[in-house]
Amino acid sequence: MSDALRVFVNATAVDLPVGANVADAVRATDPSLVDKIASGAAYVTDGRGIEIDPSTPLMSGAILRVVVRARARSADADA
Fold first, then answer.
1. What is the residue range of 49's domain?
2. Which of 4, 9, 36, 63 could bridge 41 with an S-S bond, Cβ 3.0-4.6 Å?
3. Would 39 be classed as within a structural domain?
4. Residue 19 DSSP SS3
5. Residue 76: how many CB atoms within 10 A of its CB?
6. Which CATH number characterizes residue 55's domain?
7. Cβ contacts of residue 63 below 8 Å, gap of 6+?
8. Distance between CA atoms of 35 and 38, rounded to whole angstroms?
9. Measured between alpha carbons, how far is residue 34 from residues 2, 3, 20, 23, 54 in Å?
10. pTM above 0.90, yes or no
11. Which pairs count as long-range contacts for 30-36, CB under 8 Å and 24+ apart, including other chains?
12. How far is Cα of residue 7 from the mean position of the Cα atoms in its chain?
């Protein structure tokens, strides 16, 4: 059993300790993106394109993509 897991963030391979979460993976590739995710200016999707929470634990081989929003979210935006 390995003490590290390899995941991919925006097509970049990252080796992390077992027990790492999505935010840890993003932080390892670009720390500035973590702040954007926290503020709602960006979000993370899994390999299927489904948005996932930054606290989600990772498994080896996970594929993540950070999507930066083109516009700020508005609480009263039209649907």
1. 4-68
2. 36
3. yes
4. coil
5. 4
6. 3.10.20.30
7. 7, 8, 46, 47
8. 5
9. 27, 24, 14, 7, 9
10. no
11. 30/66, 33/66, 33/68, 36/66, 36/68
12. 11
Assess contact for 37 and 26: CB atoms under 8 A: yes
Q: Tell me whether residue 75 is in a domain.
A: no
What are 23-76's pLDDT values in tens digits? 999 999 999 999 999 999 999 999 999 999 999 999 999 999 999 998 766 555
**In the Cβ-directed half-sphere of 44, how many Cα atoms lie within 13 Å?**
28
CB 9 within 8 A of CB 34: no
3-class DSSP state of 31 = helix
- Domain assignment present for 74: no
